[in-house]
Amino acid sequence: MGDGGSAPLHRHEGAPMRIRLEKRPQPSRRWLYLSPLLAVLVTMLAGGALFAALGKNPVEAIATIFWEPLFGEFAFYYRPQLLVKGAPLVLIAIGLSLGFRAGVWNIGAEGQYIIGALAGAGVGLAFYPLDAWFVFPLMVIAGALGGLAWGMIPGLLRVRFGTNEILVSLMLVYVAEKLLAAMALGPMKNPEGMGFPGSRNLQQYPSAHNADLIADTGMHWGAVAALIAVIFAYILLGRHVLGYHIRLTGQAPRAARFAGVDPARLVLFCLGVSGALAGLAGMFEVSGPAGQVSIDFNVGYGFTAIIVAFLGRLHPFGIALAGLLMALTYIGGEIAQSNLGLPAAAIQMFQGMLLFFLLAVDLLTNYRLRLLPRPETA
Amino acid sequence: MMDLSSISPILLLASIMAASTPILLAAIGELVVERAGVLNLGVEGMMITGAICGFAFAVNTGSPALGFLAAALGGAGLSLLFALLTQFALANQVASGLALTLFGLGLSALLGQGYVGIKPPPTARLDIPVLSDIPFLGPVLFSHDPMVYIALALVAAVWAGLKYTRAGLILRAVGENHDAAHALGYKVVRVRVLAIAFGGACAGLGGAYLSLVRVPQWTEGMTAGAGWIALALVVFASWKAGRVLLGAWLFGGVSVLQLNLQAAGVALPVEYLSMSPYLITILVLVIMSADRSRAPASLTRIFHASQ
C-alpha cells in the first residue's frame, strides 16, 4: 500500500497522477529565501478574503496596511513609527531565535518584557527628580537584569529539575501581567496623578527619557540596541563557537553532546540572553514611546516577536526585515482601523495567519513535491 | 476585615467541581492528543474559539446545548488547521501550536465583537434524583449542570478507552513508536488527525463552559491561560486519565480558594492573589517533572514514512 507513507495530498479516484512528498537530502536554499515571501503573499490573499468577508474592499484594505504607512499622504508621520514598533520586535525576536535554533522554547518574552520595563522604570522613578547623567544607563542595566532574571526562572527550573520551559515561561507572563497591574495601582502609582492608575510619565523626566536621538525619526536607544543585537547575533552564530554549539544542538542534539556541548549551560545562555533582550525592549518602551507604567502597558510584542523570529528564518538579518514588516502591519492596521473601520482583531488574526502560512509553505524547503503516476494496484 | 467563616465548605467544594470543569475538559482532550504522540500547544486558542462559538450559538438559538455543540465543532475545526500543518505539511509542532493559539485569539476577538455585554441563556442545573438529596455529598457531587457530569464521563471513557479497547491500544502504539505502528499497518496520520480533532472538540467544550456557565459572558481573552494550565495538567497527570481529574480539582481548588479569599477581604491586593493559580502550576510542574519516563516516546516527533 504505502499510502499513509507517501502522504498523498489529494486522493481522487481515477486521477492519473498523485502527489508524493520526498524529503530533500538538504533543505533547499532557494525555498529558504522564497518561502517567507510566498507566505506573505498568500497571507495578503487570505487576508484580503477575510477583509472582503467583513464587508471591506480587500484591495483598499491591503493597500492601506502595506502602502499607506510607507508612501501615503502622511508617510512622514508613519515612517518613524516603523522604527518605534520594529525595534522591540527585532530586539525580542533576536533573543528568541537563538533559543529556537537550539530547541529552547522561550515563549514567555511578553513577561520578560514587562519585568524589564518595571525594573527600568522602577530605577528611574526611584531617582526622580534627580537630574544626573547616570540615571538612564542605570535604568538600562536594571531593565536587562529584570528580563534576565525573569528568563532565568524557566532556565534554572529546566536545568535543575527538567521542568518544561515552554509552560513555565508562559505561566510567568500571567504572573508578570498581574505584577504590572499591582505596580501601576500601587507602589509605582503617580503620587501627583489625582488617583488615576499609572506611574509618572518618564517622558517628562529628562534624565530618564528615552527620547529620539535625532528628532522625529523614531531612532531611539531601543532601535540602536536592536541594531547592535542583530550584528552581535550574526557574529555569534557565524563566527563564534557558542553560535556553532547552538546550531549543532538544534540540528543534532546527540552529536552536540559528543562534541562537548554542555546542554545546561546552553539552555541558561539562551533563556538568559532572550530574557535580557526582552527586558531591554520593555525598558526602552516604558521610558520612551509608552512613557509610563500602566495596566495596559504591554501590547503583545513578546508574542508577535515569535512570528517575527520564524518569519525571519531565525536569521539575524531576516529578523530585522521581518520585524520591520510586522511593524508595518501594526501601523497599517491602525490606519485601516481608523480609516476603514477594520476591527483590531482582524489585524491580530492577519498576523497569526502569516505564521500559519509560513509553517505550511516551509514544507517546500525540506520536502520536494513529486507528481507520480498512480500505481495500477492501488 | 477578613472573615474566613463566610466560606462554606459545601459551597466551596461544589464550586471546585464547577471551576475545574473547563480545564478538565481541555486537559482530557489534550491527553488523548499527546498519547497519540502529538503535542498541540494550541489549546488556549481552541478553548477561546470554543468559548465564542458556543456563546454566539447559545445566544442566537437560545439553547445552551446547541452552544456547546457548536463549541465542540469550532474547537475541532480549528484543530484541523493544526493537523493540516503538522500531519500533512510536516511542520514543527511547537511552532504550529503557538500559531494556532495566536490565530485563535485573533479569530475569537473578531467573532466576538457583537457579543460583549450580553447575557447567555442560562444552563439548567440537573439535580440527580435521590443522590442529590444526600446531605453534604448531594450538593457537592450531584447537583450541577449537565456539562460537569459529561466532563466526568469523558474522563472515565478516555481512561477505559485507552486501557481496554483496541482503538486505545492502536492510539498508544502510534504515540509510543509511530514507525513500528506504521510497519504493523496502522494509519499513523489518520489516527493522529482523529486524536487532534477530539482534543480540539474537548478544548472547545471547555472554553464554552467558561463563557456559558462559569463567567457567564463573553470578553476578549477570557480564557486567561486556562488552556496553558490544561497543558500543564497533562504533564502533572503523567499522561494518565485518572490523575487529570485529580489535577483539575487541585487547580480548581486553588482558583476557587483565591476568589473566596478575595471576597473575604484578605489584606493582600487582588493582583497578588490572582497570581496564585499560575504560581501553583509552576510549582506542580517542578515537582512532577522529576518523572519524565511517562511521556509518550514519539511526542513531538514528525512522522514521514519514507524515512
Q: Assembly type of the shown chains?
A: heterodimer
How many DSSP E strands of chain B? Answer: 2
- Mean pLDDT across the residues of chain B is 86
* Gross geometry of chain A: globular
Unreliable parts of chain A: 1-14
Strand order of the largest sheet of chain B: 1-2
> Counting H and I runs of at least 4 residues, what is the number of helices of chain B?
13
Shape of chain B: globular
* Secondary-structure-derived class of chain B: mainly alpha
CATH architecture of chain B: Orthogonal Bundle
At CATH level 2, the architecture of chain A is: Orthogonal Bundle
- Mean of all residue-level pLDDT scores of chain A: 85
Rg calculated over all Cα atoms of chain A:
23 Å
Helix content of chain A: 55-70%
Describe the protein in words:
The complex is a heterodimer of chains A (378) and B (307). Chain A is mainly α. Helix content of chain A is 68%, strand content 4%. In chain A, helix 2 (29-53) packs antiparallel against helix 15 (344-361) and helix 9 (221-239) runs antiparallel to helix 14 (316-340). In chain A, 52% of the residues are buried. By secondary structure, chain B is mainly α. Chain B has one domain (4-117, 139-288): ABC transporter involved in vitamin B12 uptake, BtuC. Chain B has helices spanning 9-35, 43-61, 64-88, 93-111, 137-141, 146-164, 166-176, 178-183, 188-214, 226-236, 241-263, 270-273, 276-288, and strands at residues 126-127, 143-144. In chain B, 54% of the residues are buried. The mean pLDDT of chain B is 86. Chains A and B meet through helix 1, strand 1, helix 8, helix 13 and helix 15 of A and helix 3, helix 4, helix 9, helix 10 and helix 13 of B. Chain B: Its main location: membrane. Chain B: One of its GO terms (cellular component) is plasma membrane.
